Amino acid sequence: MSHRNVNITLLTETYYPQSKSSEIIQEFYDEETNTLLWQSKPLNSLKKGNTKSFYLIENVPSCLNVKYYIRPNYKLWKFYSVKGFAMKLEEVNSVEAYMKQFLPKKVRANINRSMRRLEHSFPIRYKRYYGEISRENYNYLMTALKEMIVTRFKERGENSNTLSNWDSIYENGLILIKEKKASLYVIYDDQSPISISLSYHYGKVFFYYITSYNIDYSKFSLGNTMIVKQLEWCYENKLSILDMGWGDLDYKRRWCNLNYKNTNDLVLPKKIQLAHFPVFYIFLKKSIIAYLVDKNIHTKFRNLKKLLIGAKTKSPATNFNTLYIDNKEKNLNHKPVSLSDYPFIKPYVYRFLYNAMESISDIAILKSNNNENCFYVIGINKAMKIFEAAETDENF
Question: Is the confidence at residue 175, as pLDDT, over 70?
Answer without folding.
Answer: yes
